User: Fold this.
Amino acid sequence: MVQHHITAPLIVVSNRLPFVLQRNKDGELSRKPSAGGLVTAVAPVVVDCGGLWIGWSGLHTEEPLEFIPESDPDDKAPTAGLLSKQVIAVHIPEREFDDFYNGCCNGTFWPLFHSMPDRAVFKAHTWDAYCRVNKEFASRTLEALRKSAKELDDQERFETCPVVWIHDYQLLVAATTIRQVVEEEKLRCKLAFFLHIPFPSWDIMRLFPWDDEILQGMLACDMVGFHIEDYCLNFIDCCSRRLGCRVDRNNMLVELAGRTVHIKALPIGIPFDRFVQLAENTPRFLKLAESEKIILGVDRLDYTKGLVHRILAFERLLEKYPEHVEKVTLLQISVPSRTDVREYRQLKEEMDQLVGRINGRFSMPNWSPIRYIYGGVTQEQLAAFYRDSAVALVTPLRDGMNLVAKEYVACQIKEPGVLILSPFAGAGGMMHEALVVNPYEIDKAADTIHRALHMPLDEREVRMKQLRHREQQMDVNYWMNSFLASMGAVNNSDEADPLS
Ligand code: ADQ
Assistant:
């Protein structure tokens, strides 16, 4: 892996800051580290280049936060070196938050972008709140750009071009305001956007009444990144058909108002080595009967993850292949998510009932078919569960990439298990050595689990070796470096195709 040295300050703009802020009982604020791969890869670069991270603190406060605490001296998280002056907390008033986050982000864009338009709600007032919150993020970014320009002398100002990197579906139109003011005030910066979820086809996108504003918001950037080429092509198609832009599909370029926007597939990876280390150093948590095998599912409790279909496929396995009764257990770990949204509460109830019904139907005095954990587990536990499971079921109905599939293969450091993967996850188009199954085909999915449970060791080894090799090469640092190279923001960019 090539480590690049960034040549410009990086300003990351994301819905949440890279750590959680919490108050103790005396009202004092402190940082609690977040463990995600994105933070692991991006935070050290921001620290290194003296950049900034702009995001919501996660706290509902009446007034904007006056200061961000420094990290604790014993903090080992990748954000530990991020000084409080490098962090800008965006204030989202509580009355605005519900319409912005639960309403527009998760009630409209999440289902729409996952091609589930029947679940999407289109409301003018939530969209208005979304635009206002995006403008607030934009103003804070602009303040930072002005401040950094002021601190430089003329020569430095000429040479320094900060890279502003906006993340995800919560901030689709922030760049509109940034671009406009940057041009008016002649501030220097390059703007980039990365979408972590799928981008749907134009025929789905056009259902959203203000889709033109979304597209224009994204096109206000110099570069727009997606996980895979299919999403890039959907986006390009939308720009052509909805906005009438000139596009070049082969080179993935879109032209708007005389500006050329580069569209790029940047498949995200995981901190591979960290998962290997965790798998090597964590003791076994699972107590299994002799020859008992675990099939593992790990997800946020979200309707896009295909949980109900997965449980039904497991039930079908027990019906169709009774040899697995008392021999195989499904361990499903579902972390609570978006519990303020009705659809998520309904899914929780549906899962409780389904698991209860199937356990009632098949359980024996010393065995239950499904162990269901509704909660998060630590990364150590997760790595051990991955390592000790014979099969991982990663079967979303739709998913931008899916990191669980990658984390599972990283942790296969002993006798390898089998990854079963949905073709509707971004990862499905890349992890070719997995067993691919359409989650809607319950019967076929049961057959595939059966096949995985019987797969000979040599076949498992061949498949897993290749899967692990790819994830090790294309880990999250590789993703970060490809992004920087594509922005021309590094000085040794082997794979660079910098924007002019
Ligand atoms: P998510 O929809 O959250 O991410 P995913 O990519 O699978 O989906 O990442 C989930 C992360 O949460 C994984 O790192 C996993 O280890 C962790 N996790 C899940 N369940 C857990 C549990 N019960 N306990 C502890 N940890 C748990 C969005 C997009 C994805 C895209 C990522 C990154 O929806 O498609 O891959 O962003 O871009």
Notes: The CA atoms of residues 180 and 186 lie 10 Å apart.
